[in-house]
Amino acid sequence: MNTHPYLRAYMAGIVVPTLVLLLVLTGFVVARFVYQVPVPIERVIVFPMALVPNMFGLWNMFYLWLRPRPHLPIGFHGALLPFVLAPCGLGLASALGFATLGSSGLMCFGQLIVPYQYLALAFTIGLIVYYLAWKYLVRFFNQVLGIA
Prior knowledge:
Elements: H1 5-34, H2 41-44, H3 46-66, H4 74-79, H5 82-96, E1 99-101, E2 105-108, E3 112-115, H6 116-144
Antiparallel strand pairs: 1-2, 2-3
Helix pairs in contact: 1-3, 1-6
């Protein structure tokens, strides 16, 4: 019997970001339609909702593929994912005109300038969050599906 370990790894990987993105989307909808936040959130949320769960699933499949070889612990493996997602997001945001790199920081929507030190802090926090999510949550779902 074929147990489809890569399919199970993909499914275990997409659970965490899918649940988190449902909460984020709820927050965005409330901000946009209840509090009338003038940022075009509906154009920005498409990238994370489409790419992040799929990348989590593919990254978990990659982790499973690496298992017979020497590899990093799952938390560190997950903490490497922002190094893939951040350039993709920044490249897409730049290509679509949502963000431009300036001398003082990242300009979003032509109005908001985020200084580079805040971006570095946010990226560092993201690494920590990804490490913890992979170490505890994705590993748990891998164990539930019998691929840990």
